[in-house]
Amino acid sequence: MRSITYTSLCAAAILVMILAGSQAAMAVTCQVTQLAPCAAAISSSSPPSQQCCTKLKEQRPCLCQYMKNPSLKAYVSSPNAKKVSKTCGVPVPKC
Fold this sequence. Notes:
The protein is mostly helical. The chain has six helices and no strands.
């Protein structure tokens, strides 16, 4: 059960990084765990929560970093992650 939650969390984090793009205008701490509210939406077809969208937008400057991480890349670039990004209005960055 823990491995599923961890996997979902990683997937959500990766998705957020890919979708958010790299805008370093404001200081943000890149922590993939901040995307935990997106785990359910990334690992299933459920819609993202408002909290997920908020966190995704906050982590936007970190998305390319997450995308470059081999452990997170598969989650961030998944079709569900792209759907979450689109639903939240966060463009997928081109890194």
